[in-house]
Specification:
Elements: E1 3-8, E2 13-14, E3 20-21, H1 28-39, E4 43-48, E5 61-64, H2 68-78, E6 84-87, E7 94-96, E8 115-117, H3 121-126, E9 134-140, H4 145-155, E10 160-164, E11 173-180, E12 183-191, H5 192-207
Parallel strand pairs: 1-4, 1-6, 4-5, 6-9, 9-10
Antiparallel strand pairs: 2-3, 7-8, 10-11, 11-12
Helix pairs in contact: 1-5
């Protein structure tokens, strides 16, 4: 039985006890991938950022995290057992340089916050992935989508990448393009369950 590790949902990078940097990722794609993998008899580990309970699959081992650093640490503990890794999480790219222990006051006309990059989870985990492991990522782009997705696939040592747009965040559908070393396939507008089915079919074909 193949084992699959799925990273899903957003990460939240807190500025203070009540405010955070994040995005509108809902975890629906991760849920769809887990449900598709479950239907095909795969062993599943899901690491999820903060999402509603309704956006989590049932009958699946789930580790819940908040920040990018927590997601990376959780994935590092599980990746050795994975035959397939899918990076479906929409990780916040920045975190505050310093986090306030107290709620920041709304004083003055503006506030300046120094930011630093969050860990690059896919690049870190895939830098030394085994030859028998398959890693698939997602690229959400606003412009130059295919070119940026191809660059991302290579720089992060991914076997394939799924290009989508910001309209996919939180939605039940999206426009998706599959990209791997052989080329690209424009899948057009799909619901996330159908997209998940195509992704899992692709990785299982490669894993044979």
């Amino acid at each position: 039985m193949k084992n699959i590790l799925i990273l899903s949902g957003p990460t939240h990078e807190y500025l203070d006890p009540v405010r955070f940097i994040g995005n509108a990722s809902s975890g629906k794609m991760g849920k769809a991938l887990a449900e598709e993998a479950l239907s095909r008899g795969l062993g599943i580990e899901l690491i999820s950022g903060p999402v509603p309970d309704g956006n989590l699959p049932k009958n699946v081992s789930i580790t819940r995290v908040t920040s990018a650093e927590e997601m990376l640490t959780a994935a590092q503990e599980k990746i050795a057992e994975a035959d397939i890794i899918i990076f479906a999480a929409a990780v916040a790219d920045f975190q505050p340089l310093e986090k306030s222990d107290e709620k920041l006051s709304k004083d003055g006309d503006h506030i300046a916050i120094d930011l630093k990059p969050t860990p690059d989870i896919a690049a870190t985990l895939c830098a030394n992935k085994r030859a028998d492991q398959i890693a698939i990522g997602f690229a959400l782009q606003t412009h130059d989508g295919e070119a940026k997705a191809r660059e991302k696939r290579i720089s992060k040592n991914l076997d394939g990448i799924v290009l989508n747009t910001p309209a996919t965040l939180g939605a039940d559908t999206g426009r998706f393009t599959w990209i791997d070393f052989q080329g690209s396939e424009d899948w057009g507008l799909l619901d996330k369950a159908e997209c998940a089915g195509r992704i899992i079919a692709k990785v299982l074909y490669r894993a044979v």
